[in-house]
Amino acid sequence: MKVRVRFAPSPTGALHIGGVRTALYNYLFARQHGGDMLLRIEDTDSTRFVPGAEKYIIEALDWLGIGIDEGICIDAPNGKGDHGPYRQSERRDIYHQYVKQLLDSGHAYYAFDTPEELEAKRKEVPNFQYDARTRMSMTNSLTLGEDETQRRIADGEKYVVRFMVEPDEDVTVHDLIRGDVVINSNILDDKVLYKSADDLPTYHLANIVDDHLMEITHVIRGEEWLPSAPLHVLLYRAFGWADTMPQFAHLPLLLKPDGNGKLSKRDGDRLGFPVFPLEFHNDKDGTVSSGYRESGYFPEAVINFLALLGWHNTGDQEMYSMDELIQQFSLDRVSKSGAKFDYEKGKWFNHQYLQLKSDEQLADLFAPVLAQHGVHADKEVVAKVIGLTKDRVNFVPELWEQTNFFFVAPTVFDEKSLAKRWKDDSPRHMQELIAVLEGVNEADWSASYPTTDDKGNHITRWHLDDVVMPWIAEHEYGVGIVMNAFRICLVGAARGPHIWAITDILGKEETLRRVRAALGLIVK
RNA sequence: GGUGCUAUCGUCUAGUGGCCUAGGACAACGGCCUCUCACGCCGUAAACCCCGGUUCGACUCCGGGUAGCACUACCA
Fold first, then answer.
1. Topology of domain A409-521, per CATH?
2. Which nucleotide across the nucleic acid strands is nearest to A48, CA versus C1'?
3. What is the pLDDT of residue A5?
C-alpha cells in the first residue's frame, strides 16, 4: 500500500516552528517511502480563523523546500488531487453524512446544554466530565426523547452532537515511537463532534473522516494529541473503519530554551529569536512576528537544525542535506522526550551553510543590504571582500559590520583601539609610512607571491611586506605598534582581515588618502 | 485533582547487557596561530534522576519512587 501522510495545520496564525518540524518529519517519511505528502487545512474553528494564515503556511513550506504532493500548495492554492476539497470548511456536506451515520448507529446523540450551563456545571461539580456517568442528567436527546429533540432542532435551537463513549473499556493505541499506550475509556468524555452554531465538525470528527477518506496510512503529529488518540481509535471503530485505521506516531514536543514547557510565541519575543519560519503580519490582532527568513537564515540551515531536534541517526554526523535526511530518517530513531529549543545551535548551523556558499552567491544575497546603506559596489569587489570576512559571520546581514570600512572610509575611531594601539609616536610613524608607500609602484601595490615561513608552511607573502617590514626593522620600530596604528587609520578600529588584504582592495590612492585623513581626524 | 508520556554533560544527542576510564556537536573556559578582531586548530571542565531487583556483569532489562511535560473546551 502506498504511504500517504498529511500535515494538517489550523489557519489560526503563523505556522509555529514546532509545526514546521512536524511537517518536515511527515515530508521525510513520505519521500523515503515513495509516498504522498498532503496538506489539509483544518479550519473548523470559525472563531479562530486568521486571514492570511493559510497563505503563510504554504509559503513557509515552499521556502523550506517541504514539497506538497496533494492538497493545498503553492501551485494549487485551492488544492490538487482527487480526494478534495482539502479545506475542511468546504467539506460540510461530507461531515453531515458521517455525523448522521453515527447518530443512526447509536454512537452519537444530540445535546442542547449551552456553553454557559456547562461552565456552571463545571464550577458546581469538581472534575465534571460529560460521560456515561453524567450524560443522563444533562439536556440531550437521551433524556429529552425523540419528539422533544426533533422539536428543538426544528425550532432552530443550537445543539451539538456528542460521541457516546462506552465506559470501562481499555483502549490500546499502538504508537510507532512509544509502543502500546493503553487508556481506559472512563477518562474520556463524550466529545463534541459537531456544532450546529457554525455548521462545522470539531477536530476529532473531521480528522477521522478526512484521514479515512483521504486514505492516510500514517498519522505523524505532536505529542499533545496522544491523550486523545484513544478517542480517535474509538471513532474509527464506531465508523467500522478499524481495519484501515492509519498508524500513529506522536512526536516529542519542542520545549522552551530556559525553564520548562512548550515553546511558545512569547518565548521568541522574550528571548529574542524567531519561532516562525517567515515574518507574519497578523491583521486580526495587529501583531508582527519575526521570521527565520527575514533574520537571515538559509532554509537548509533551518531544516538541518529542526531535523536534529528530536531525531538523530547513530553516529556523529551533524550536517544533513534534505536528500540525506530523506534517506536516513526513521521514526524509530525519533526521541521520546521533548527537546529544548537551542537557538545557539541554530546559529551555528547557519554559519556552516554560509561557509558552504560561494563568494559570488553571497555577494548577490548581500547586495540588498549594501544598497540599504547606500553602497553600490562592483560585484567582483563585493565577492572578494566577502571572501575575506565570511568566516566570521553567521548571517548575511552581519557581513555589513565586517565589511563596511571597505566601502566607507572611517570618520570616527574606536576609543578602545586608540587607547591601546595609538601611541605618541604613531603620527610620526604614519607620516613616514606615507612616504614609504608612496614609493611603491602602482603595478606592485597588490602583488603577492607564494613562499614558506620558517616552519615550512606554505604562505602568501605580499610585496608590501617586503617594502614595509625592512623599513620597520631599519628604524627599530615595533611591528605591532606601526601596523596597528596603520590599521586604525584604514579601518577605524583594531579589527578586520589581514592588513595587506585590505590595502589590496582599497588601492594605493585610497590607502594613502585614508592615512592622511586619519592623521587629521584622530585627536588624542 | 485525574490520565498519559518522558528521564545520559548547561543544551541537542550517541549508547539496544560486557566494546563505557560513557562518544560527538553547540555553548563555556584555556592555549596555539597572529599587526588587530575573528576564523581555524589543540586542549580543559561538564552527565547516566533516586532506591531496589534480575544478572557473573547494568546507562542499557524489571519494579517502585521522584521530577518534568502534555492532555483534561461547542481549540486545534
1. Arc Repressor Mutant, subunit A (1.10.10)
2. B75
3. 98
